[in-house]
Amino acid sequence: MKILVVGANGQIGKQLVTFIQEQDHLHARAMIRNKEQASFFEELGAETVVVDLEGDIDSIAKAAEGVDAIVFTAGSGPHTGKDKTIMVDLDGAIKTVEAAKLAGIKRFIMISSFDTRRQAILDAPPSFAPYVAAKYYADEWLRKTELDYTIIHPGALVNEKGTGKIKAGFDLEIGEVAREDVARVIIATLQNDSTIGKEFQVIGGTESIKEVIQSV
C-alpha cells in the first residue's frame, strides 16, 4: 500500500512516515512544502513530492496519483493566526478531499481536533475557536463524500515516547496522547477496513492500539 502523507513535515507526519517505512508492505509518499525538507524523508527511503497546500487542487491531485490512501496530518499550528487556520486547516483539508476524488483515491484518513461538534466551537476559548470551526467544516465536508474515510480525533498532543496503549471512543474526557501513538493509530486504521466510515477520539489508555482499533 502506498500512502500520501499530507503535512509530512509536521510532528505527527514525520513519525507516520518513519513508521510506514518500517513496514514491508507499506510505502510513504511525503508531501512537503519545499525541497529543503526532503532529506529527512529520502534518508528513510520514502518518496517526496513538493506541493504547497495553499495552491490549487490539481497540484494535490497530481501528488496523489498512484497512491492507495491519503492521510491528512497538516495543521497551521497555534501561532500562525486565523488566516492560516482558514487556508490550511479548512481550505487545505477540503482541497485535499477534492483532490482525492479527482485522483480516484478512495481511502482517506483525516486527523482532526478532539471535538469538532458545534457545541465545541461555542465552548472553545476565542483564540482556539477558529481552529475548531475550521476542523468542524472540514470534517463535515469529508462526511458528505463517498470516500472511504476515517476521522481520528486525538486528545492533547504531547511529544513523550508512545506507550502503544490507548483508549478510543466518543464523548471521552480529554486527556493526553503521544504523537507517536497517534501515528501508530493511523497505521492500524489503514490496515483495518472496519474503520471505514467511522470516527473516534483517541487518548492515552491501557489497551494495545491493535486491539482498540479492531473494536472501534
Describe this protein's structure.
The protein has 216 residues and is an alpha/beta fold. The protein has one domain (2-155): Rossmann fold (3-Layer(aba) Sandwich). The protein has helices at residues 11-21, 38-43, 57-63, 82-103, 118-123, 129-143, 179-190, 209-215, and strands at residues 2-6, 27-32, 47-50, 69-72, 107-111, 148-154, 156-158, 165-169, 176-178, 198-204, 207-208. The strands form 2 sheets. Strands 3-2-1-4-5-6-10-8-11 form a 9-stranded mixed β-sheet, sandwiched between helices. Helix 1 (11-21) crosses helix 7, helix 3 (57-63) packs across helix 4 and helix 7 packs across helix 8. The chain starts with a strand and ends with a helix. The model has no long low-confidence stretch (mean pLDDT 95). It holds the Pfam family NAD_binding_10. InterPro entries: NAD(P)-bd_dom, NAD(P)-bd_dom_sf. Residues 7-192 form the NAD(P)-binding domain.
Structural topology:
Layout: E1 2-6, H1 11-21, E2 27-32, H2 38-43, E3 47-50, H3 57-63, E4 69-72, H4 82-103, E5 107-111, H5 118-123, H6 129-143, E6 148-154, E7 156-158, E8 165-169, E9 176-178, H7 179-190, E10 198-204, E11 207-208, H8 209-215
Parallel strand pairs: 1-2, 1-4, 2-3, 4-5, 5-6, 6-10, 7-9
Antiparallel strand pairs: 8-10, 8-11
Helix pairs in contact: 1-7, 3-4, 4-6, 7-8
Please, how many domains?
1
Note the gap between the termini: 22 Å
Mean pLDDT: 95
Quickly give the CATH architecture: 3-Layer(aba) Sandwich
Order of helices and strands: EHEHEHEHEHHEEEEHEEH
Outline the biggest β-sheet. Answer: 9 strands, mixed
Q: Label the overall shape.
A: globular
Query: Which CATH C-level class is it?
Result: Alpha Beta
Give the low-pLDDT segments. none
Q: Structural class, from secondary structure content?
A: alpha/beta
**Given the structure, what is the number of helices?**
8
The count of strands amounts to: 11
Fraction of residues in H or I helices: 25-40%
**Quick one: CATH superfamily?**
NAD(P)-binding Rossmann-like Domain
> How large is the share of residues in beta strands?
15-25%
Radius of gyration of CA atoms, rounded to a whole number: 16 Å
CATH topology: Rossmann fold
Strand order of the largest sheet: 3-2-1-4-5-6-10-8-11
